[in-house]
Amino acid sequence: MQSDANQYQFLFVQVSLHTSQGGMQQTKKCEGTCLKNGASGSSGKRTSSGSQMAEKTVTQKRKPLPTSLTSPDPVIKPQPRPSDRLNPKTIDPFGGQSRAPSAFAAIYSKGGIPCRLVHGSVKHKLQWDCRPETLQFDPLLITLAEGLRETRHPYTFVSKEGFKELLLVAGAAQKAIPLLPRLVPVLKAALAHSDGEVFERGLNALIQLSAVVGPALNDHLKHLLSSLSKRQMSKKYKEQTTDALQKLEQYGGKESLTVIKAKIPTYCSISS
């Protein structure tokens, strides 16, 4: 019996040793696994941080190009030449994208204005199909006044010169006075135009009309003075508008002065 007890005790010691050795081996395996996982995690962290640093370095290296290299060269507008006055802007009949013709251009192209432009070596002139004094002013004079708003050659010259020459014929006053209610709104549109050359043509036409019809224009004068008052505040047109107002006073008499002073209080009369 004692030998059996000793044998059982020996077996128990072996089992305990085996169990403890297995536990130590498992502990070592766990420690090895944890170390590997920690190493891989730290290496992953180092890799991600390294990639972030690389991205930052690339971003810092990619500096924007100077504005002088990326922006296009500035467009330099050509300066007008003195010879440009001899070559006015002309309508191109063969232009593929030309805008629709104005009323004046349409009438002129259909022969509704009985004159044509003659190009001279020094200056241009009009050649009438018949004597101007034989022509009816209605609606020719109004049509020519509407052409004052044109901005292209030959319409600019034909309207300006035709209006002037028609008012020079004998008996022009008797023909023009009945047309004043229809003429004044057309001249007003030219005087209010944003184009400076159109304004100047309208101003000259107004002076020519006033010289022909005289005091008959006074009843319609108030409709035209608003545009003149605005232009007079401009340094560029102050002298021209002042001269025009003096001509209107000269041809319209004392009644015209009253109308002018009511609209433009700063105007100085030619008689003062």
Give the strand order of the largest sheet, numbering strands 1, 2, ... along the chain: 1-2
Number of helix segments? 12
Spatial gap, N to C terminus: 160 Å
CATH architecture of the domain at 105-263: Alpha Horseshoe
Which spans of ≥5 residues are poorly predicted at pLDDT below 50? 1-6, 15-48, 93-97
**Helix fraction?**
55-70%
Number of DSSP strands?
2
CATH class of the domain at 105-263: Mainly Alpha
Tell me the CATH superfamily of the domain at 105-263: Leucine-rich Repeat Variant
Q: Could you report the average pLDDT, rounded to the nearest whole number?
A: 79
- Please outline the major beta sheet: 2 strands, antiparallel
Q: What structural class should be given to the helix and strand makeup?
A: mainly alpha
InterPro entries: ARM-like, ARM-type_fold, Parkin_co-regulated_protein
Biased composition (Low complexity): 38-51
Organism: Podarcis lilfordi (Lilford's wall lizard)
Protein name: PACRG isoform X1
Tell me what you see in this structure.
This protein has 272 residues and is mainly α. The chain has a domain at 105-263: Leucine-rich Repeat Variant (Alpha Horseshoe). The chain is built from 12 helices and 2 strands. It has helices at 2-61, 67-70, 103-109, 137-146, 155-167, 172-176, 180-191, 196-213, 218-221, 225-232, 238-252, 254-263, and strands spanning 115-118, 125-128. It is globular, with a radius of gyration of 48 Å.
